[in-house]
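hey
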């Protein structure tokens, strides 16, 4: 049956990196259906990221762990989605929840993966198993293969909202013309982290060239403080200080983000900020930055990648990354960037 596609709902109920890495899906749909309304259903955490997707018209929030845990509120959400009369739903996650929601909302064409019984609720299914080693941004496009849709551009994209840039300026008082380097030393688990003494030495090498901010969530306060103390308290610590939108605004005006494999790394890639990334238990070929100015710090170990699932007594994948090599590489990046036009001149700042 052939019918026109004028309203599309992308469903992505995962986390920050996942929503950003699905950018090529939204781009491919926009290229195929330039006049269509393309909306996105996400969890509350990622709403600021989805709202900054330049290919998305409207964001709908599904609070699966809060408000919408109540069956009455969930049915209200489903009814609201049903009233939109979407022609196509694209479920980008392996979990079946998105497919069930699309089915319950009466969306007649529903594409997604044949994982976790989601296929029972879909009209067009893609294999959940990837057959080749590719970057995750490319993998996301597999969900569109049953529809015959793709794109040659798998880059990430994020537009910083003006209200987030404004609230960041109100919250952080600094001379925004000065160079800024951000360090995000913590990921979703400790095995992704580099050494405290390494970060401290890195900060000491950066502060003659730029302001240095340590960023993380509230749970990382003690770790960030310990790194800063080791560096003589020369950095500014932001632990849970910013909203996600404000964090994206901050990353967008930084000269450089030094980070482990985590959500802010993908934000930097999406806003065009150079990245120096530490990779140990995870694979940069799948999750790493891909920009011409980005660099990856990694050592060869025979247990790579373990994805943090194995017991580890040595943590060599991160411990063997040499402090001196990192400092030289980061200094080179900063010296190169300092000879270019300051980022703030072309930003909300």
């Amino acid at each position: 049956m052939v019918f026109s596609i004028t309203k599309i709902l992308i469903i992505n109920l995962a986390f920050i990196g996942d929503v950003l890495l699905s950018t090529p899906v939204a781009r491919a749909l926009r290229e195929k259906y330039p006049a269509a309304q393309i909306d996105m259903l996400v969890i509350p955490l990622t709403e600021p990221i989805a709202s900054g997707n330049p290919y998305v018209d409207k964001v709908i929030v599904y609070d699966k762990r809060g408000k919408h845990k109540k069956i009455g509120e969930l049915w209200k959400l489903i009814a609201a989605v049903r009233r939109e009369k979407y022609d196509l739903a694209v479920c980008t996650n392996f979990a079946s929840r998105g497919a069930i929601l699309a089915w319950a909302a009466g969306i007649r064409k529903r594409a997604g993966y044949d994982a976790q019984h989601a296929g029972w609720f879909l009209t067009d299914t893609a294999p959940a198993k990837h057959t080749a080693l590719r970057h995750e941004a490319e993998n996301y496009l597999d969900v569109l293969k049953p529809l015959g849709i793709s794109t040659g551009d798998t880059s990430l994209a994020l537009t910083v909202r003006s209200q987030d840039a404004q609230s960041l300026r109100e919250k952080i008082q600094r001379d925004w013309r000065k160079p800024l380097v951000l360090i995000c030393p913590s990921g979703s688990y400790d095995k992704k982290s580099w050494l405290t003494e390494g970060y401290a030495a890195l900060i000491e090498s950066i502060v003659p060239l730029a302001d240095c901010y340590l960023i993380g969530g509230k749970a990382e306060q003690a770790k960030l403080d310990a790194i800063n103390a080791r560096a003589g308290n020369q950095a500014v610590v932001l632990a849970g200080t910013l909203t996600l939108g404000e964090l994206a605004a901050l990353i967008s005006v930084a000269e450089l983000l030094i980070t482990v494999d985590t959500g802010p790394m993908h934000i930097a890639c999406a806003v065009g900020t150079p990245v120096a990334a530490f990779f140990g238990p995870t694979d940069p070929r799948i999750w790493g930055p891909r920009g011409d100015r980005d660099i990856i710090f990694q050592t060869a170990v025979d247990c790579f990648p373990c994805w943090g699932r194995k017991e580890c007594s040595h943590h060599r994948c991160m411990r063997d990354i040499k402090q001196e090599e990192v400092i030289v590489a980061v200094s080179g990046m900063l010296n190169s960037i300092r000879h270019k036009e300051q980022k703030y001149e072309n930003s909300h700042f």
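Residues 192 and 280 are 6 Å apart (CA to CA). The chain is about 35% helix and 15% strand.
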